[in-house]
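Objective 1b of the project was to move from sequence-level analysis to a structural picture of ligand recognition. The entry below was assembled by the postdoctoral researcher (A.K.) and checked by the PI before modelling. It contains the amino acid sequence of the target and the SMILES of the bound compound, zinc ion.
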Amino acid sequence: MDENNEYFFNIYYENDERLKSCPFCGSEAWLRLEEYPEGDIWYSACCMESNCCGWFCNYETKEEAIKKWNERI
Ligand SMILES: [Zn+2]
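Corresponding predicted holo structure:
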């Protein structure tokens, strides 16, 4: 992490039926999109249950984030 750089980005959540439920708690998993000002978007799959730490970051494509998530089930 470069401490001189502050990152501002928008976060969106998207439901995607291709995502399997969370391997840790069984809750629904969502796609998390980080949109940076330069136009970069990073995709993660994450669990929406706040007590659960089930998430995998950060992939360049939605498909990869979904695939990696589903592979861990
Ligand atoms: Zn979970």
